[in-house]
Write a structure and sequence with these properties.
234 residues; Elongation Factor Tu (Ef-tu), domain 3; Rossmann fold; 2 domains; 6-stranded antiparallel β-sheet; 5 helices; 20% helix; binds flavin-adenine dinucleotide
Length: 234
């Protein structure tokens, strides 16, 4: 595991209360799409009774020269401190960590069941697959409360260049018009959209409640544990 200082290049709000931070990727930092790092703010401006570091998935693909992170903003000292970091200043990362990576077999279907900022590792993996012109069938079931809170929705809906790709947006609290399924990810929605339930690799990413709900659905669909990868964002 490496410990490196990385320099902030830019930051912006990409969805309601959701920030994207772009750092310059050091040449010596290698990672696989889907992995995460522990990010520590140097001399944080705010403090509370929690540590000054958090586990964060990498949103950019290994082939890019930026390291991007996407975070829901909150009142925690960590989130306020990272938002106070200025362009050109450095933070510390330790990593890469995690085993949530893509299948070796390029025909294995890849199915993402993701919610909120759980989109982050999926973005890295999808961008990586696009870059290597992957043949894997890819399905994305992306749950959010509203359109405004859904990060990178347009990119995932319209701009993905993969030969067998399907995207479904699921919104639980949207009142306006949307090209979406209203409500929550159900067993029926998963079975209608999944490709080859016996061979597919599933990637579940979100908060504990979401992760447990998706595990329950896959159990009912008799998907084996070895087919399921999970990142529990807590
Ligand atoms: C592998 C992995 C990858 C992750 N990737 C991302 C990512 O890409 N983007 C992202 O935003 N997050 C990611 N997370 C989650 C991230 O590490 C943080 O936990 C999350 O962002 C919340 O951080 P926070 O500082 O806003 O809240 P925190 O201060 O960490 O609080 C989290 C929760 O704990 C509660 N809490 C805090 N302190 C206490 C206390 N003393 N007693 C009781 N409850 C308390 C809070 O109310 C809140 O609900 C990832 C986590 C893991 C494990």
């Amino acid at each position: 595991m490496q410990e490196l200082k990385i320099k902030l290049v830019s930051m912006r709000e990409i969805a309601e209360n959701t920030m994207q931070y772009n750092f310059k990727k050091p040449k010596e930092f290698d990672f696989k799409a889907g992995q995460f790092v522990v990010l520590d703010v140097i001399n944080p401006k705010f403090s509370d009774n929690r540590p000054s570091f958090r586990s964060l998935s990498i949103a950019s693909s290994p082939h890019e020269d930026v390291l991007s992170f996407i975070m829901r903003h909150s009142d925690s000292a960590f989130k306020k401190s990272i938002k106070a970091v200025k362009e050109g200043e450095e933070v510390i990362i330790k990593g890469p960590l995690g085993h949530m990576t893509l299948p070796e077999n390029e025909f294995t279907p890849v199915i993402f069941l993701i919610a909120g900022v759980g989109v982050t590792p999926a973005l890295s993996m999808i961008r990586f697959m696009e870059n290597k012109i992957s043949k894997n069938p890819v399905r994305v079931l992306y749950a959010n409360r509203t359109l405004r809170s859904a990060a990178c929705l347009e990119e995932l809906k319209k701009e993905v260049n993969l030969q067998d790709y399907k995207f479904v947006s699921i919104l639980s609290h949207e009142n306006g018009t949307c090209e979406c399924v209203r409500g929550r990810i159900s067993k029926q929605l998963v079975s209608e959209n999944a490709v080859d339930l016996k061979k597919a690799k599933f990637y579940i990413v979100g908060t504990l409640g979401f992760v447990n709900a998706m595990k329950g659905i896959l159990e009912e669909l008799k998907v084996e544990k070895k087919q399921i990868n999970i990142d529990n964002f807590g």
